[in-house]
């Protein structure tokens, strides 16, 4: 129970703790293959964010914020017997990046897979990339506000993974993704609110692995490049495709 809401999470394996944070419009189940590889050597904790997987929906009248999501991660930290390896993707990467500023001494390592810290593009020399991703967000919010969840899902999937991905999905899978769009909108909007300047992230001392696809969308690549120039102890792995 976190702030009166039910938090669902995966807890498998034994050993040093790894915490996995999933992408938006997803759940902890996105990590099933990785958990299978890690649980023989590590204790793996993977929470579902608000309104995703089996965690309770966000019911407060105020907007969802970083602090609300970070409380779920802190609950995972409290289950650990020591420092954790924090691995996070996309939306989860934004939560992990900002959370790392609050978790000094608690992290053994930090892995960020295309973190969605898009506010950095606005303030640090990439206004065109910021405008591209912000326009996607605004269109998404508009479609969801008009109840066009399937259209919002198609726009989002096609942007991140290509139109062929959406075309190749069956009706049941499309409907499942569309059902996540309202919650996804709250999270997508939240990532544009932070005003943490890029230089603040120089305080993150945990060794950091940045991961990025070679053909990823330009705003995601832009965020990774900014962090490469900023985080004091980092290296990059590029994944083909």
Short synopsis of the structure:
This protein is of the alpha/beta class.
Write structural notes for this entry.
The chain is built from ten helices and seven strands. It has helices spanning 32-38, 66-79, 91-100, 119-123, 127-145, 149-161, 163-167, 171-178, 181-190, 218-228, and strands spanning 9-12, 17-21, 43-47, 84-89, 107-113, 208-213, 234-239. Strands 1-3-2-4-5-6-7 form a seven-stranded mixed beta sheet, with helices on one face. The mean pLDDT is 94.
Poorly predicted parts? none
Please report the number of helical segments: 10
Strand segment count: 7
**Roughly how many Å is the radius of gyration?**
17 Å
Largest sheet properties: 7 strands, mixed
Helix content: 40-55%
Structural class: alpha/beta
The geometry reads as globular
Oligomerization state of this entry?
single chain
Spatial order of the strands forming the largest sheet? 1-3-2-4-5-6-7
> How would you spell out the order of helices and strands?
EEHEHEHEHHHHHHEHE
């Amino acid at each position: 129970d976190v702030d009166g809401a039910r938090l669902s999470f995966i807890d498998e394996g034994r050993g040093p703790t790894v915490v996995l944070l999933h992408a938006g419009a997803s759940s902890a189940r996105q990590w099933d293959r990785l958990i299978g590889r890690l649980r023989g050597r590590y204790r793996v904790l993977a929470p579902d964010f608000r309104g995703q997987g089996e965690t309770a929906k966000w019911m407060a009248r105020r907007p969802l914020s970083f602090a609300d999501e970070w409380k779920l991660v802190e609950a995972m930290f409290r289950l650990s017997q020591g420092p954790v390896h924090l691995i996070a993707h996309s939306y989860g990467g934004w939560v992990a990046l900002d959370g790392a500023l609050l978790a000094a001494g608690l992290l053994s390592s930090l892995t960020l897979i295309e973190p969605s810290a898009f506010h950095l593009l606005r303030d640090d020399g990439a206004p065109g990339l910021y405008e591209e991703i912000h326009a996607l967000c605004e269109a998404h919010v508009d479609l969801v506000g008009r109840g066009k969840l399937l259209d919002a899902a198609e726009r989002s999937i096609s942007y991140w993974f290509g139109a062929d991905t959406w075309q190749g999905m069956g009706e049941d899978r499309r409907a499942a993704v569309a059902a996540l769009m309202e919650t996804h909108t709250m999270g997508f909007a939240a990532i544009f609110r932070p005003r943490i300047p890029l230089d603040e992230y120089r305080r993150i001392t945990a060794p950091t692995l940045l991961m990025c696809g070679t053909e990823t969308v330009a705003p995601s690549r832009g965020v990774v490049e900014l962090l490469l120039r900023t985080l004091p102890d980092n290296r990059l792995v590029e994944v083909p495709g």
